[in-house]
């Protein structure tokens, strides 16, 4: 089957259009939007439900736990918002979780669960490919504000990972490197960190000898840091690689102003974490945003519930790496884990929570495969 035939088959696939719509909403929707904007995700959910109400929309135990833990966060945030009449922040955030994220989570989980994993890979790759092209076109032509570079960069970075689902070795490397080049022009340090994080974990779990070689190489590079950084900076400036320039500036400035701001916010907000839920906490402006969803979750829900959430997410990630260590989709999901926990709370964490459902489905597929193998042996 030629490439044109494959593209035609993808465009004729209902599952692709559902994933594309969900991905578009994920990247295009902010919790700052007015309440009326929730008509879009709720309409998508109602249409999906009506088209699939005869089919079983089941949830596994892992999915139920994740939904429950997110619902606890939303409910406690809502109670605090109503008690203290904080409708602009806490009640609005709760509305965002319940009316936008939950419908998307449910559709995404059921849609990828009912299709073979190869179909999910294809749908995600093509969806991100189209969205990253759209965002790059808008960004480089000035239709997206310059301060939204992280938003654009993360779509590009995620797409560069998904290219490795392609079977053609040359094609996957060429396309991935082209997209990384675009990422360097955008200036997103967050996305670059996500790529490095997911790449290092892959190297570590797939070949520890290569990982050790990498660590030794990094040590040798550190010994010649100043010389290398100066020359890299010259090349980056010459070819307008904004991301590299921003990274080098951050290294020389000890992280820069953004890191100092985050550290000061972390230190002040850690004091607000108690054993029981905190009904008084509210990020009244951007300077008080936790920049870490786990910190936000701990403050809102308390140490007991917060610890359950943290341990559960870590369990999902570690188990997924152990069971599906060579799956591109695992590292695609991990791309969002670190980089989206140094950004603005729930508005950024939606990505890594969203793709936790992808990890859950991968684990479910592995369990089904093992059961089938046992039955075959018997």
Question: Quick summary of this structure?
Answer:
Helix content is 78%, strand content 0%.
Question: β content, as a range?
Answer: under 5%
Largest sheet: number of strands, sense, barrel closure = none
Cα Rg = 21 Å
What string, H for helix and E for strand, traces the elements in order? HHHHHHHHHHHHHHHHH
Question: Given the structure, what is the number of helices?
Answer: 17
Average pLDDT for all residues: 81
In the predicted model, the low-confidence regions spanning at least 5 consecutive residues are none
N-to-C CA distance: 38 Å
Helical coverage, percent range:
over 70%
Number of strands: 0
Shape call: globular
Structural class: mainly alpha
How would you portray this structure in words?
It is a single chain. The chain is mostly helical and about 375 residues long. The chain is about 80% helix and about 0% strand. The chain has helices at about 5-10, 15-30, 40-50, 60-85, 85-115, 115-140, 150-160, 170-185, 190-205, 210-225, 225-240, 240-250, 255-270, 295-325, 330-340, 345-355, 355-375. α14 packs parallel to α16 and α14 (about 295-325) packs parallel to α17. The mean pLDDT is about 80.
């Amino acid at each position: 089957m030629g490439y044109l035939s494959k593209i035609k088959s993808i465009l004729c696939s209902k599952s692709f259009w559902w994933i594309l719509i969900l991905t578009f909403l994920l990247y295009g929707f902010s919790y700052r939007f007015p309440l009326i904007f929730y008509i879009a995700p709720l309409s998508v959910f109602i249409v999906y439900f009506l088209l699939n109400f005869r089919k079983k929309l089941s949830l596994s135990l892992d999915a139920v736990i994740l939904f429950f833990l997110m619902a606890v966060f939303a409910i406690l945030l809502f109670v605090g918002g109503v008690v203290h009449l904080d409708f602009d922040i806490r009640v609005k955030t709760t509305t965002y979780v319940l009316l936008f994220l939950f419908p998307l989570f449910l559709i995404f989980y059921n849609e990828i669960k009912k299709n073979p994993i190869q179909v999910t890979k294809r749908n995600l790759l093509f969806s991100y490919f189209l969205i990253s092209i759209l965002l790059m076109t808008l960004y480089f032509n000035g239709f997206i504000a310059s301060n939204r570079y992280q938003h654009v960069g993360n779509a590009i970075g995620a797409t560069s990972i998904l290219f490795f689902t392609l079977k053609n070795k040359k094609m996957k490397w060429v396309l991935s490197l082209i997209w990384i080049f675009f990422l360097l022009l955008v200036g997103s340090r967050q996305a670059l960190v996500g790529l490095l994080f997911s790449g290092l974990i892959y190297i570590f779990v797939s070949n520890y000898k290569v990982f050790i070689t990498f660590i030794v190489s990094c040590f040798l590079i550190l010994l010649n840091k100043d010389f290398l950084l100066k020359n890299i900076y010259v090349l980056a400036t010459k070819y307008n690689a904004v991301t590299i320039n921003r990274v080098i500036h951050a290294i020389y400035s000890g992280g820069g102003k953004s890191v100092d701001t985050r550290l000061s916010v972390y230190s002040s907000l850690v004091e607000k974490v108690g054993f029981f839920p905190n009904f008084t906490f509210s990020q009244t402006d951007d300077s008080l945003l936790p920049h870490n969803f786990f910190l936000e979750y701990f403050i809102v829900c308390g140490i007991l519930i917060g610890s359950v959430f943290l341990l559960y997410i870590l369990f999902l990630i570690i188990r997924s790496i152990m069971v599906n260590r060579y799956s591109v989709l695992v590292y695609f999901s991990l791309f969002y884990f670190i980089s989206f926990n140094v950004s603005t709370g729930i508005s950024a964490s939606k990505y890594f929570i969203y793709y936790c459902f992808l990890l859950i489905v991968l684990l479910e597929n592995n369990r089904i495969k093992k059961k089938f193998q046992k039955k075959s042996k018997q």
